[in-house]
Structures are given as structure tokens and as C-alpha cells.
Amino acid sequence: MVSHEKPADDSGSLHALPIDDHSALLVVDMQYDFLPGGALPVTDGDALLEPIAAYIRYFANKGGRVLFSQDWHPEGHHSFASVHPGKNPGDPIDTPGLGPILWPDHCVQKSPGAQIHPDLPLELGMAIIRKGYHLTIDSYSAFLENDHTTKTGLAGLLRDLKIEKLFVCGLALDYCCYYSALDAKEFGFDVYFLKSLTRGIDLPPGNIAQAIETMQNRGIHLID
Ligand code: VGL
Ligand code: ZN
How far apart are CA 32 and CA 121, in angstroms? Predict the structure, then answer.
């Protein structure tokens, strides 16, 4: 069961968070393919464009660093159901580095669907972390690929900048945002999950509730 009570350490609303020059905002995978009309659309994902754009400006104004992640798969990526004969998107897969499920072809490198939506102020981002570019390994987290070993370099970058607090928003709540938040916590950052600035896929059903419960248990601040 997921508790709907506020966790004891909840640090309050979006605009009461301790943002300073040791803070970074990770805007996860706000790409056309994850928005309605895209290849792997997250319901209501487009409702995030305006509030995330506003939050990026607010955050940068407070002296925080802004980074984007970008799902960036080569054609024929092994996370795509289309490369597994007889398989469909949503089917389970348990090959190391992939799964738990297969996806439609999405965020293919240089395709329009892989573009980060230009309504976001990309110019305020100091870096774009690409992930999922190894043909046989998926990468939900912006820190570690799904083999749990291969680093993207994001942890080192944040440490070099003396970042202590990482704020996470974007798509999708129960995949790339979730795994990025868990890894950030593992790497020692104080993690603020901006729940109202995310939307989830919820595959398999119940996945969103489980992700939220796990984050609460790991000491990630969930901000509504
Ligand atoms: C994502 C599934 C596959 C995400 C990326 O950005 O959450 N989900 N690739
Ligand atoms: Zn992907």
C-alpha cells in the first residue's frame, strides 16, 4: 500500500525548496516521442511543458544549475520490441541490461521524436546527458545504464560542480525519473522528486505507486 500521508521529511512546496548554487535540476527526457502524438506517449505529458519551463527559469534565477537528459537510441536498439521477432511493445524481457518490458521504437538518434521540446528554455541548460546509445543496453537512469555498471558521467559532473541537492522532474515518472532519482540517492545526493512536474507510464499497472513507495522508503523527498 502506498501511504498518501506526507512523509515526515517533506520539504514543502515547489517554491519553498532550498535552491542555491549547490543545487541542480535534472529535466528528464522531455522529448517529442514521450509527449502525446509521439511514439511512446505519456498521458498528459504535454501539460508539463509550461510549468517545467517556468520552473527551469525560476531555478536558474536562484543560482541552481539546469541539466537535461535525452533518451538517444540507435536504430534497431534492443529495447525496441521490433527487433525481437514475435514480440510487441509492453511484452516482458529479462535479458541483462534490458527490460522489464519492451518498447515501441522511440527517440531514435537525430529523429524529430528524439528532440527535446523547444518550448523549454534549453538555453538555460549547462549540459544534456544522452543515454541509451549502446545498442544492447537500455538506460532509464541518467546516471547508470541498465547493466547497473556503465556510467553516463553525470555523477562525476555534479560532484565536480559541488552539487549536493538534485531536483528531478520530467518523463517518465516510473522509468527515467524514478531510476535517475534512485541512482542519485545512491551516489550520495540529497534528492528532491518534483512529483507534480512528472507524469508516469504505469506499465505494468501499479508501477507508478510502487515507484513512489520505493522512493519514500529510500529517503527521497517527494514534492507535490
Ligand atoms: C523511458 C522507456 C523507455 C523514459 C525511456 O524516458 O522514461 N521510458 N525509454
Ligand atoms: Zn528509451
Answer: 15
